[in-house]
Amino acid sequence: MRKPLMAGNWKLFKTAAETKDYFTRFLPMVAGSRHCEIAICPPFVNIPAAVEAAAGSNVGIGGQNVFWENQGAFTGEVSGPMLKACGAVWAIIGHSERRQYFGETDETVQRRTVAAIAAGLRPIVCVGEKLEERESGRTEAVLADQVAGGLAGLSAAGFAQVVIAYEPVWAIGTGKTATPEMAADAHRFIRGRVAGHFGAAAAAAVRILYGGSVKPDNVKGLMAQPEIDGALVGGASLDPAGFASIVNF
Ligand code: PGA
């Protein structure tokens, strides 16, 4: 039985003060939510404020990226051990915005994922096709490449720490959600690729989240699909009541 994970990706939003205020309002609304794991990934600088605000609660904090070296002359990067030392437990890796704006590739995704696991973080590795890839019938080829290039090189023990997030790029921040059936088809395909690389047991165990315009009013339909093991939520995770209602779908 895969326990759902509901993860909020705050992207480039909220100050430390706004982070504290969010948790004051959010935590009571999810304190009784035992049906799923809950994660929130704020910008790096607000991870300590989030960890402090969420201490002792059922909400785990994560980063939105992680570098593959532990330390060194890498201006602007943050490493896995640094995140871990701040109290983070999750790390989003390979988000489509990283791929689109910051040159992330399947190779760097794999390096970051390996580093996150080595640091004791749980990676949430994002895959997903762009609109023109879907329209030209290349969705499965793209997903297969992303799984092969970003994940297939992990050890079996490493892969056991991974959560995959399927986020069709055309659905992110656009208000266009994949239908539950479209998402489930992609999830089935990804799970099949995982089976090819890591075997049937690993494929049955890995959680695959859906992301892309998940809102309080569409989460139920998505979560009704047995293939969908949770959500990675951007915009709608910024409002405590909205994200709580997604968590408590
Ligand atoms: P969205 O973002 O929910 O705002 O579409 C999802 C994501 O990018 O993880």
Describe the structure.
The protein is an alpha/beta fold. It has a single domain (5-247), classed as Aldolase class I (TIM Barrel, Alpha-Beta Barrel). It is built from twelve helices and eight strands. The protein has helices at residues 16-30, 47-54, 80-85, 96-101, 106-118, 131-135, 139-151, 156-159, 180-198, 200-205, 219-223, 240-247, and strands spanning 5-9, 37-41, 59-63, 90-93, 122-127, 163-166, 207-211, 230-233. The chain has an eight-stranded parallel beta barrel with strand order 1-2-3-4-5-6-7-8, surrounded by five helices. Helix 1 (16-30) links the parallel strand 1 (5-9) and strand 2 (37-41). Helix 1 (16-30) packs parallel to helix 2 (47-54) and helix 7 (139-151) crosses helix 9. The model has no long low-confidence stretch (mean pLDDT 97). The site of 2-phosphoglycolic acid (PGA) has 13 residues, from strand 8.
How would you briefly describe this protein structure?
The chain has 249 residues and is α/β, with parallel strands linked by helices.
